[in-house]
């Protein structure tokens, strides 16, 4: 059964290689790529079934020891409820984004490198979610980022080159810092395996581990994860990179790649470093664990991200700019309940905080992908995403308008859409922490309320400018008649095959609609999403269970006991 752990990784890797080999044939390459996306989702579903289902019961942790080398010596891959929850988001969003890519990215770009790079990016994301040691977390980060570097630069214009250069330089610096921090952790703890690190931090005297240096090194590592997630003050790369990349790449960056940084924070700081005990009294930060230190840090970053991103989104004059700054604000909403959980006075509130963060992350992954794809579609249909060039699209492209509206309402938090429950859980976690007397919980409520108001403001502005009112001259020229999915009447001024253009745009809108339906479906069937997120949160907080599964659970063909010390 443990061999199932590597199935998503192998599927993504094989698909990436096959798309490279089938480049001479456009149709064959796209077919292989799309079938690979389907196979990846099937592999993730099988892993989800083995680990999480049935919902409400005890989840399982599956471990794969590469080449039969038991932990902590070998390379370990771990699939628990937290890992497969994030993989489920990846599988769903990547498949729909891939379908959108086939319709939106030019034939030459697809044949040259797009599909191979896309699937290698999925390989890096998958490896990051499954890896059981910190060094291989670095390795998978690099696999993911090397693909994304080229995809951000995909169109090779001046703006794209500048954005890609900033993105590459910042992430290379972050990678160097990450490697130094990991080396320091290894020299301090004597191991790279996550479960083994947790075990040694829980009994530092038995392993001669000095806990205080590990706290400092983990703080350095945290800055890297904050950079990957686009948290303030490391958010400055986000707007330029998101505007420069092709729309489906931006959807993946915002919807999936950002969540790798969030996942790393949850996995390392709530599962691994939480095992350590330390008396803290530093700059007013007190506590008995690493989380006591990182809770206020998370809160400060989340609060600044929510406010700064929200204000930035309100002031932008283009749709992609609004969505990019919104993404900064929304990742703050994901980290805010983690800050509450880190300083929670009870295990129940801590579990609720992590669950709220995971639900919000899942919802954001789907809906922000929807909105970036909708923005890409209106750019393809009209030729601009500047607010001053647009207007009246609700009349000329009603299906696209409906998809965008549902995405905006989901992030605003209107019931019964899935975003309502994510935002409700964030407020509930902060409110319960406040009722229990947790320091800063009242301020967390205020920040969340301010962020919610800003979200309403910038999405209302975007809707009014783009979709409401009379059609602008540009919209009149591009869409002289009403156009919707399946319509063959609208004349697309693409200078080429109008019928082909309509088919491509219809495919793009269909993907947007599918994501909007998912937002509705996860809202109506929220109990299932909550059950999966709750199982993921319990797995994240179960340090002993994670250590036991990795160090003492069955490997591949033998018992991988916790020897080697």
Automatic annotation (TrEMBL):
Subcellular compartments: Cell membrane
Domain NADH:quinone oxidoreductase/Mrp antiporter transmembrane: 132-434
Species this protein is from: Haloferax chudinovii
Membrane topology type: Multi-pass membrane protein
Keywords: Cell membrane, Membrane, Transmembrane, Transmembrane helix
GO cellular component: plasma membrane
Superkingdom of this protein's organism: Archaea
Name listed for the protein in its UniProt record: Complex I subunit 5 family protein
Positions in coiled-coil regions: none
Segments passing through the bilayer: 6-22, 34-53, 73-100, 112-131, 137-155, 167-186, 206-227, 260-278, 290-315, 322-344, 356-378, 399-421, 433-460, 509-533
Lineage, top ranks: Archaea, Methanobacteriati, Methanobacteriota, Stenosarchaea group, Halobacteria
Pfam families per record: Proton_antipo_M
InterPro entries registered for this protein in UniProt: CPA3_Na-H_Antiporter_D, NADH_UbQ_OxRdtase, ND/Mrp_TM
PANTHER family referenced in this protein's UniProt entry, alphabetically: NA(+)_H(+) ANTIPORTER SUBUNIT D1, NADH DEHYDROGENASE
């Amino acid at each position: 059964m443990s061999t199932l752990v590597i199935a998503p990784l192998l599927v993504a890797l094989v698909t990436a290689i096959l798309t490279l080999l089938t480049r001479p044939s456009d149709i064959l390459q796209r077919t292989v790529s799309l079938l690979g996306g389907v196979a990846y989702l099937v592999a993730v579903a099988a892993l989800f079934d083995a680990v999480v289902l049935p919902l409400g019961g005890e989840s399982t942790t599956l471990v794969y020891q590469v080449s039969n080398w038991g932990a902590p010596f070998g390379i370990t891959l771990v699939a628990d409820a937290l890992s497969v929850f994030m993989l489920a988001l990846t599988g769903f969003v990547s498949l729909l984004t891939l379908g959108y890519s086939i319709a939106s990215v030019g034939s030459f770009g697809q044949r040259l490198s797009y599909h191979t790079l896309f699937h290698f990016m999925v390989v890096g994301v998958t490896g990051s979610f499954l890896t059981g040691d910190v060094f291989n977390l670095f390795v998978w980060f690099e696999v993911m980022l090397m693909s994304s570097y080229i995809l951000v630069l995909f169109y090779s214009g001046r703006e794209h080159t500048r954005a890609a250069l900033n993105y590459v330089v910042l992430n290379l610096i972050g990678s160097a810092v990450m490697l130094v921090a990991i080396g320091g952790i290894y020299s301090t703890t004597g191991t790279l395996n996550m479960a083994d690190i947790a075990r040694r931090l829980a009994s530092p005297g038995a392993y001669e581990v000095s806990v205080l240096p590990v706290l400092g090194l983990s703080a350095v590592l945290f800055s890297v994860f904050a950079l990957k997630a686009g948290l303030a003050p490391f958010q400055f790369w986000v707007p330029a990179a998101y505007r420069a990349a092709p729309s489906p790449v931006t959807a993946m960056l915002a919807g999936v790649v950002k969540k790798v940084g969030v996942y790393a924070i949850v996995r390392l700081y709530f599962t691994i470093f939480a095992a350590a005990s330390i008396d803290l009294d530093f700059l007013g930060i007190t506590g008995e664990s690493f989380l006591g230190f990182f809770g206020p840090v998370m809160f400060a970053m989340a609060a600044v991200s929510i406010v700064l991103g929200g204000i930035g989104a309100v002031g932008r004059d283009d749709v992609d700019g609004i969505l990019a700054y919104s993404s900064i604000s929304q990742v703050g909403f994901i980290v805010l309940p983690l800050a509450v959980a880190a300083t929670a006075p009870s295990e129940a509130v801590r579990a609720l905080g992590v669950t709220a963060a995971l639900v919000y992350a899942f919802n954001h992954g789907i809906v922000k992908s929807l909105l970036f794809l909708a923005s890409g579609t209106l750019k393809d249909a009209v030729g601009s995403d500047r607010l001053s060039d647009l207007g009246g699209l609700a009349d000329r492209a009603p299906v696209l308008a409906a998809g965008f509206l549902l995405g905006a309402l989901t992030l605003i938090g209107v019931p019964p859409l899935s975003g309502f429950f994510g935002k409700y859980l964030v407020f509930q976690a902060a409110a319960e922490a406040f009722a229990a007397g947790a320091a800063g919980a009242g301020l967390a409520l205020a920040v969340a309320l301010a962020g919610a108001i800003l979200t309403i403001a910038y999405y209302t502005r975007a809707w009014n400018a783009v979709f409401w009112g009379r059609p602008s001259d540009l919209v009149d020229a591009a869409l002289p008649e009403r156009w919707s999915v399946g319509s063959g009447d609208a004349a697309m001024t693409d200078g080429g095959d109008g019928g082909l253009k309509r088919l491509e745009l219809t495919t793009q809108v269909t993907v947007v609609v599918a994501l909007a339906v998912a937002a509705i479906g996860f809202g109506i069937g929220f109990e299932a999403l909550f059950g999966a997120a709750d199982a993921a949160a319990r797995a994240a907080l179960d340090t002993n269970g994670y250590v036991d599964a990795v160090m003492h659970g069955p490997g591949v063909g033998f018992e991988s006991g916790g020897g080697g010390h």
